[in-house]
Amino acid sequence: MPLSQGVDALTRLRRTIFRTPGPLRWVAIGTTLGLVLLLVLFGVVFRTGLGIVPVVGAREPDGGNRVGAAAPIGIAPSPGTSPKPLPDEYVPLVVAAGKVCPELPAPRIAGQVMAASGFTPGVLGEDGAEGVAQFRPELWQAYAPSPAASATDPAAAVPALGRAMCGLVDELAPLDGDAYLTALAAFQWGPEAIREAGGLPDAPSLRAFADMVSDYTAYYARDPRLGGASATPTRRNNPTASTPSGPAGTASPPGNATPDPTGPGTNPSGTPRPSATTTTAPPPPPAPVWQERVIRSTSALRTDQSWTSNRLELTLTGDGDIVLRDQGRTVWRSGTAGRGGQVLVFQGDGNLVLYSRYGGTVWSSRTARNNGATLVLRADGNVVISDDGRSIWQTGTAS
After folding, report:
1. What is the Cα gyration radius of the chain?
2. Considering only CA atoms, which of 374, 395, 300 is closest in space to residue 342?
3. Does 95 lie in the same domain as 222?
4. Which of 46, 202, 275, 310 has its CA 20 to 30 A from that of 231?
5. Which 8-state DSSP code applies to residue 364?
6. 147: burial class by Cβ within 10 Å (0-12, 13-18, 19+)?
7. Does residue 232 surpass a pLDDT of 50?
8. Which residues have CB under 8 Å from 80's CB, separation 6+?
9. How far apart are CA 73 and CA 81, in angstroms?
10. Would 71 be classed as within a structural domain?
């Protein structure tokens, strides 16, 4: 029933009650109150039976982080927590993430994931950070492999961590301080906060987290599955072979050495010594086959959207910068961060233009009057605007 009809009904009921003679008026009032109470009780029972009334503390059906949701699954490690062995299902993910750039090898990826969540996918942190890597929402939007991917899925989050950290290392390289630690701080607090601070902040929480990552990295560097040597020393086959036979601290003179009666090719027992085996190195992996992506006019990007190939990613970032990444590594940018760019348009006249919210030009390739030109993400790593096979603008990033 609409609200206006309910108010009219109550008004008519009130007039009827007060027009009723004295003795019957109280009967009418009591009957009305009883009916109202029954209606209220019926409504509560009906809504509860359909599951409409929310239960305090229950998790939302979609598992979202809403007020009244259940506590997150898992607790992030604290300083002093012993590292866990790297789960087998994480090994290929960590190895792949560790190949994006030299600053982020696989043990460092594993150490950061251990410090962030202890390999628990459901950990929820501050400012909306979630998943094994504790991605902040804005960073996940920028580095997620697809719009449908979830930061709570390790198969998506761990490789994305490699791309994100390598991207932040390149993006914040001009700032003072250690590039990796600066990127680690930006991953926790956001790149804008680090830029505003002018570099790496001297914060106790950052130092504690960085120390945890460093300790865990040293642990995972000994994992042979990540290319490290085993932490358990290997006993030699013949531990007495190099033991001096003379007095303590001295070696036996060559003249007093006992000759081997069995000859150099046999063991003391007389059995032949096994010959050394030669292992053949596996063939190098095949070179990747990079693809070309052609963008035709008119095509547009809004903030946090990208044109991509299997090698390149040309993105309009949330702060209005145009960034080109080659296999996750930043190789070119327009330098327009913070200038209000909202839409990047490749126009029909061949001009690539970054517009502000109100239609003002923030940046352009200055290639107008080239109708029919195409924007090409080339297989060699270069991005060009081409008109009839002639390059009229490029990022100059071929490699």
Report:
1. 34
2. 300
3. yes
4. 275
5. E
6. exposed
7. no
8. none
9. 18
10. no
pLDDT over 90 (residue 392): yes
Nearest to 209 by CA among 185, 193, 192: 185
Tokens of 120: 């628990």
How many residues are present in the chain? 399
CA 92 to chain centre: 16
Cis peptide before 397 (omega within 30 of 0): no
Tokens 């910068």 belong to 321
Q: At what angle do helices 179-189 and 204-220 cross, to 10 degrees?
A: 120
Residue 138 burial (10 A CB sphere; 0-12, 13-18, 19+)? middle
Spatial separation of the C-alpha atoms in residues 346 and 325, rounded to whole Å: 19
| Encoded amino acid at 99, one letter | K
How many other C-beta atoms lie within 10 A of the C-beta of residue 143?
27
One domain, residues 222 and 118: yes
Strand 341-346, strand 352-356: pairing: antiparallel
User: Residue 186's domain is classified under what CATH number?
Assistant: 1.10.530.10
Fill in the DSSP letter of residue 42.
H
Instruction: Identify the residue whose tokens are 């994992």.
Output: 223
Q: Are 144 and 250 within 8 A, CB to CB?
A: no
Cβ 220 vs Cβ 97: under 8 Å: no
| Greatest alpha-carbon span in the chain | 137
Q: Which CATH number goes with the domain that contains 379?
A: 2.90.10.10
In a domain, 104, yes or no: yes
Give the pLDDT confidence score for residue 25 in this predicted structure: 63
Tokens of 155: 């198969």
Looking at residue 394, what DSSP letter applies? E
Q: Are residues 93 and 222 in the same domain?
A: yes
Q: Is 284 helix (H, G, I), strand (E, B) or coil?
A: coil
User: pLDDT tens-digit profile of 191-208?
Assistant: 888 888 888 777 788 888
How many CA atoms does the CB half-sphere of 100 hold within 13 Å? 29
Give per-residue pLDDT as tens, 344-361. 999 999 999 999 988 899
Asked whether residue 325 is assigned to any structural domain, the reply reads: yes
Please give the pLDDT value at position 262.
46
Question: Which residue bears the tokens 């070696």?
Answer: 251
Per DSSP, the three-state class of 160 is helix
Residues β-bridged to residue 354: 344, 363
Which pair of tokens denotes residue 132?
């094994």
Q: What's residue 289's pLDDT? A: 86
Q: What tokens were used for 168? A: 């932040």
